[in-house]
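note to self: the first set is below, dont mix up w the second
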Amino acid sequence: MKGLLPALLLFLCGCAAHPIHPGTANAFDSGAYDTLSVTDSVIQSTKVDLAANKFPASIAGNVKAALNALINAYDIADNFYCGQPVGTPLTCQPNSYHALAMAGTATPTQNSQLQNDLNQVSSASAALVTAKGAQ
């Protein structure tokens, strides 16, 4: 799990080259998708670990608090990025960042907001790693 955070942080600082996923508008859109996908995986695996009592009681409360903060940051970023998917196959809300990026109409202000939201996800991810490392 600790290996996922460096990949997430590399995306956020722009330090690594990323392939652009099919169905994304550009490298930033694709990187946001990557960040949200990795973060969802971290959230789900941490929930499983908490439910299985894999953390010592002395840190479990801190891990849960850090996880809840990460979930909150993730939800904000994911809602801005895609909103509640609709249709079959699932697509992002028409007013979501991703949909606007695909249409070529995402503004610099929207790019900045998404970057800020992703930075919050990164900070919350780092806090979760720190909480888990207190064993």
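second set (the one i keep forgetting abt)
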Amino acid sequence: MRPKPHAFTLIELLVVIAVIAILASIFLPVLSNAKKRARAVQCGMNNLKQIGAAVQMYAHDNDNTLQLDPLIPGSETWASILFTNINLGQREIFLCPSYKPFAWENWLNVYGIRRDAPTDCVRGPNGIFFRIDCVSNPTEYLLVGDTTSQAQGGFTARQYYRFQISSPLRMIHARHSLRASGLFLDGHTEFCDKPRLEGLGITAEYGADLAVGYF
């Protein structure tokens, strides 16, 4: 005679469900943290590294000079100038995958470039041409980084294409576990924590950017 097939009892089924729930509560946060770390690595070690290489190539072709803004203000920015002149593939390279807009929309909501370079290192209208070999300590010069809009240009909680260390606005955004991804003028990238940012003279945003957009 064939043995009767075993069916789960209600208690056994509840035990299985409880075990699955416990495992999910353990592994879902781990998976979420792993995704956050992966996005941070893509931001700091992939995107910014490629931008850094493109900056060096552009400057090499232009007498060690980087163009920080277009001659005519508008929808173009430093990022579009670099993208137009250096083959970087996808526009998404200028976006941090952990922050809005997530997918490329325009050249205003991209990583920010430092826009208050030393006055003796810039020339042209509003100092838009920056001579990168003029800075005495490039390893301590944050050139491109994670930014947040702080209501500039009417944007709320989005990347913004420029930042100024001298500004009272908290433009650099430490969104990667209280660290900000940064590309330095010598080409290296860092995840900068609060002591590092403050050592660079930067007052950063460590939480949500709640500044309401205005024009």
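remember for set 2: The chain has one domain: 43-199.
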